[in-house]
Amino acid sequence: MLLDNISGAFDSRGVEWPGGPGLAEATSVLNNQIVELQRLGGDGITWVAVSEDVKFSGNAIGNFDVDRGAMLRLSQASGTNVFGDISTTRISP
Questions:
Q1: What is the mean pLDDT of residues 6-19?
Q2: Count of the separate structural domains present in the chain
Q3: What gap in Å lies between CA 73 and CA 36, rounded to an integer?
Q4: Fewest beta carbons within 10 Å, which of 7, 27, 29, 34?
């Protein structure tokens, strides 16, 4: 899980992904703000969106597939007041 019971403005710290497909889920209320799953870019500095499938403004589930060792984080893309839970789960092959 990358982030649980989020509240207010945030950027979660990056965590190393074990590789392969995953499922990102947003539950509770996100106050119609945008939260997205991001990965650390090749320059080692810039965070980039993984895909539109894991960009949430409310209750939703999205799939993603990221290489082993990629650094992932959840980031508030817009707004200032986000409340809810967002988690990521690796899907076993």
A1: 67
A2: 1
A3: 8
A4: 7
